[in-house]
Amino acid sequence: MPLKNNDEGAIIVSGDLNYEDREVFLTKIAPFKSGLVVFDSRGGNAYAGIEIGKAIRMRNFSTWVASGSICASACAMAWLGGTKRLMGKGALIGFHSVYRFQGGTPVETGSGNAIYGAYLAQLGLSERAIFYLSSAAPASMNWLTPAEAEGLGINVAVYDPAPAPARPSVRPNDNAVSSLEARSKDFVVALNVILSGSTEQYLKILNDIYSEQVSYFGKLLPRVDVVNQLTKFIARWPVRNYAVKPESVKVQCNEQTQECHIDGMIDFDAKSQERGQHSHGVATFDYLLSYRPGARWPVIVSENGSIVNRKLEALVPPSPPYPLNFGAVR
Question: E strands of the chain, at which residues?
């Protein structure tokens, strides 16, 4: 998409990055001397992420992850290539080490991380920044915030453009409700992404996202009891992947009470090497969210859900290594 100056282009990258996407991206970026690349991707192939990042830097493009969007794993590697890196306050940009699959289990690869480290060094990042960006285990994630980026010497600018004016035919209350609906969807997606990453980072947010009293699967519990139950659950399943099914999500909001009811379905995949178990399937979720004045995210007032289908299996022993992959966050 050309901008006002025909030498500048805007390119949108969404969905998982595949090995072949490097060639596709080079074709898209070729007509332009500079511009902006907008990302919304959970990850994909390491080679694609690195090569796209290199192309972005060579072509003098800026990169942006908007509030409410996710750019993780290989996507985050490509985003780093921007000569100017932009992120929204509500954006999720996550990094972890390069890995390959062995018997369905992600295992770090030394050669892949060497290539990754060399790429980060070419971008002029410090050893401290390189360690942060590549230190998280394959099943974990280091989520970069503007404050952390500043501390690591990674140049990042916060960019949240003002929303376009509402059309005259749309009532103000309709806009407010629509905004709450979008924020609720963003919250649930982000919550499951964080749940799929680092256990430590997930535990850090629990006290902030639940109200003091929670209707938790039919029982009224204090927040501390809910946090304790969730802590025990993730200890049982150290490796977790949760992905919201976008087409299943339904949201109803009340602008006056600043509350939203949101429900839908998720795919889940959880493993415990220690217990030798693998659980995967489909489940429902059902939240009542309450928004506080000035807060970006709501608190959970009520939570419910059920298992639609589930398979509990023994973990398969490791098999010979598979090709290098940086994996999409699910």
Answer: 8-14, 34-40, 61-65, 70-72, 85-87, 92-95, 99-102, 105-108, 142-143, 157-158, 210-216, 219-222, 239-244, 250-254, 259-272, 277-290, 299-304, 307-314
